[in-house]
Specification:
The chain is of the alpha/beta class and 326 residues long. It has ten helices and twelve strands. 31% of the residues lie in helices and 18% in strands. A five-stranded mixed β-sheet has the order 4-2-1-6-7. α9 links the parallel β11 (259-262) and β12 (314-317). The radius of gyration is 28 Å and the shape is elongated.
Length: 326
């Protein structure tokens, strides 16, 4: 009764997948009892290698709770998808599982290189019951009634200034980085996040860990595009005026020519790459250590800079530095 689709989010890919789902499973359904189709990608976007795991976890929760969740941010169906003919339903509301007994769902996952996976899952309670086994499980035996899943039961969004996010100074400033493909793209992103913060629900009453996670996601889990801007958040009040606080969008530099100069022996000093070693105890100037360290430290620095995508266009070296330069 439920199918977790890959959801390519493309004009071609979505109709192809929907038609294949309808062709394979639609004949066992009807307009009155359609096959519900969902895609967790509408909630969390692209997860690359982890996207299949996200779909699996969502589907397990659907089977456990007996609730088919809505497709977030769903606005209109691709006109090339004839959902009625295919006996499919792309729901925008929560629905209880349509019938009692075994709950079965399918999961699609398409890999970038052409690998296709399809997994069929049963809920643990009914599987164990049918096979006369006893195990621990988290399946809800009784499907919740429809009225308990109405939108009104969720309550209206709580505005940020009325929620439990009282204005307060953060322990450490938070850096949020915006990246877009065009000059005005970052402004659109900022506006979207500003609207989100304005309607932030009270579940984020402890806003600091939430902002830590958001800052990490924006900086490390998003593609760095050509146009960029940022904002430094020092207190929760900054969230209420995000558009005024954010820097102007700037085009990223296309790359600069860098030169690395590698030194020879004689440039070392006490406490260099040591922790609180006093000059009197340091052995860094002894040849047996200084010559090896001169090479090793500079090679290590090159590797560190390489991990930051900082690469030289030209290198020069003196004495032992020639080894590191090479």
């Amino acid at each position: 009764m439920f199918f977790e689709a890959h959801g390519t989010e493309t004009a071609v890919g979505d109709p192809v997948e929907a038609n294949s789902i309808g062709a394979a499973f639609g004949r066992g359904h009807s307009c009155d009892e359609p096959l519900y189709v969902g895609a967790v990608k509408s909630n969390i976007g692209h997860l690359e290698g982890a996207s299949g795991l996200a779909r699996l976890l969502k589907t397990i929760l659907v089977l456990e709770k007996g609730v088919i969740p809505p497709n977030t941010n769903f606005e209109s169906l691709n006109p090339k998808i004839d959902a009625e003919r295919l006996n499919l339903k792309f729901s925008t509301d929560s629905h209880p599982w349509p019938h009692d007994g075994l709950r079965r769902a399918s999961v699609n996952y398409f890999g970038f290189g052409g690998t296709n996976c399809h997994v069929i899952l049963d809920d643990a309670y009914n599987y164990l019951r049918i096979h006369r086994q006893t195990r621990n499980h988290s399946t809800t035996k009784v499907v919740p009634p429809r009225h308990s899943l109405s939108k009104s039961s969720l309550g209206p969004p709580i505005p940020l200034d009325d929620a439990s996010l009282e204005p307060k100074k953060l322990t450490t400033p938070k850096l949020l980085i915006w990246s877009a493909a065009d000059r005005h793209g970052t402004a659109r992103l900022v506006k979207a996040y500003n609207d989100y913060f304005q309607n932030l629900r009270s579940r984020h009453s402890d806003v600091e860990p939430f902002l830590d996670s958001l800052g990490y996601t924006l900086a490390e889990r998003r593609t760095s595009l050509l146009w960029r801007s940022f904002v430094v958040i020092n207190s929760t009040t900054t969230l209420l005026g995000l558009e005024k606080q954010t820097s102007k969008s700037k085009r990223a530099s296309s790359g600069r020519n860098l030169g690395f100069i590698f030194t020879g022996q004689g440039a070392q000093w006490p406490e260099m790459d040591e922790l609180k070693k006093p000059k009197e105890l340091s052995r860094i100037n002894e040849p047996e250590f200084s010559q090896s360290l001169c090479r090793a430290i500079q090679v290590a620095l090159v590797d560190l800079l390489e991990s930051f995508a900082i690469r030289p266009s030209v290198v020069v070296g003196h004495s032992l530095g020639e080894i590191a330069a090479a």
